[in-house]
Amino acid sequence: MSSLESSIAAADSHSHTTLVPAKVIQPAWVRTMHWINAVAMILMIMSGWQIYNASPLFDFHFSKSITLGGWLGGALLWHFAAMWLLTINGLAYVITGLATGRFRKKLLPITPGGVLSDVKAALTFRLGHDDLTTYNSVQKLLYAGIIAVGIVIVLSGLSIWKPVQLQYLTALFGGYDVARYVHFVCMSAIVAFLIVHVALALLVPKSLRAMIIGR
């Protein structure tokens, strides 16, 4: 066979080669709900800081430059609007995650030994991120933990918002004042999670790409 015939045969063979699409890492429903949750959380945190400034729990205030609403009334409007967005979208996320088996597949099992091993690997820069479809033990713990924190912050927020109508829920937290501290601690945990989450996304850009385009 001449070189020309070989080239034609190779080209013909290549044209019949089936292209395998990139594997979907983050399905569309996960990506959509993830970004809605992110926007809702940021709005709630910034407006929540403005609400906090009106009646601080500790001896400090948040800078006006990082708050939302301008004043207490405006901040409350933003907070309540974002609250419904976060609650509805978060509830849909949890239900869908349970129904599809994603939570069971992605977040379980979580073992102390696995967490300690992965923490040690991370501290020595040996924790791999080659397979984005599988979470390591630290990721599992963080993601499961932030879901739990999200549930608690919504419940504590409701008990602060309607302490009379939801008096049994408020009592479950130990009263209105204690519920405010619980709400603040949960907010702090979410902020810490967001900082770590964004830092890891910047360190592993392909994980951010997967959350934008799915692959």
Topology (elements, then pairings):
Elements: H1 3-15, H2 28-54, H3 72-99, H4 102-107, H5 112-123, H6 137-161, H7 167-172, H8 176-203, H9 205-213
Can you walk me through this structure?
By secondary structure, the chain is mostly helical. The chain has a single domain, classed as Fumarate Reductase Cytochrome B subunit (Up-down Bundle). It is 72% helix and 0% strand. It has nine helices and no strands. It has helices at residues 3-15, 28-54, 72-99, 102-107, 112-123, 137-161, 167-172, 176-203, 205-213. Helix 6 packs antiparallel against helix 8 and helix 8 (176-203) crosses helix 9 (205-213). The longest helix is centred in the middle third of the chain and has 28 residues, at 72-99. The two termini are 42 Å apart.
DSSP, total strands: 0
The residue-averaged pLDDT reads: 85
Outline the biggest β-sheet.
Answer: none
CATH architecture: Up-down Bundle
Rounded to an integer in angstroms, the radius of gyration calculated over CA atoms is 23 Å
- Estimate percent helicity: over 70%
Number of domains: 1
The proportion of residues in beta strands is under 5%
Helix run count? 9
Task: Give the N-terminus to C-terminus distance in angstroms.
Answer: 42 Å
Rough shape?
Answer: globular
**Computed structural class:** mainly alpha
What is the CATH class name?
Mainly Alpha
The CATH homologous superfamily corresponds to: Transmembrane di-heme cytochromes, Chain C
CATH topology: Fumarate Reductase Cytochrome B subunit
Low-confidence stretches: 15-20
